[in-house]
Amino acid sequence: MKKKFLGLAIVLCLVMMNTINSWAFTFYPDTSYMYWPTTSQRVTDTFGTPRSEGRTHTGIDIGGVTAGVAGDPIYSALGGTVKDVANKTYGVVVYVNSRGYNPWLNKYEYVQTRYVHVEEDPIAEPGESVNRGEKIATMGGTGGYPIHLHFETRIGTTLNMGTSDSATIPRDPLVSYTDAQPYKLPVNFTKQSLVDSLDDVGEYGIVSNNMLYSVDFIMSHPISEVYNYGITDSELKELLSTLKANNSNLYEQLNDYLN
Ligand SMILES: [Zn+2]
Fold it and tell me: Taking the model in full, what pTM does it have?
């Protein structure tokens, strides 16, 4: 009888822990890092590049593992709720709304991530909860575009933020959706090819322990914290010399930061 009660108590505890855990994951996902949204490390265009009629690019573009071949998995960069899946003139879009506590910024924030031009009938469905790193769609070229993922991070003011452009403000996903966050990378990433791909489009960072830290992320944290993430002096020096070699205006800033 006693044994039975203990068994029941353990089961109850496990159920409660699981409930708390899924509650935390669904409504308060950890936004201190994002998952890289696909298996390709070919960044082909960055945030802010000029577009027609005075507009600018509101996200980043990532080409397929093999250029022109559709079907690469698209992962949700953050845990959250699928706000909508829409078939727009510019392609099929999956919208994921997230609210999370960012311990590095010590605040709650609302973020909408958008995955654009994905193949029709994506896995994710409106109203569904998704975890960070969960497959939600496959890469396509819907809307008549070359095959690539257009990935956006946008700041909102409520968890239920809408999908109109005016409901949220786009931020550079490579720098931050707020001020700075790193990316956890799929396991098969090779360090150099991502760094090289970023160099090609004028973005800089360190790939360390399967995470991507942008130069902006590094400079927005005290150096002691940066070391806590496992980033080494030699990696920082390598980044500094890359910035110098590319005549980046971030060279002076990082140099000052390190001295
Ligand atoms: Zn784009």
Answer: 0.80
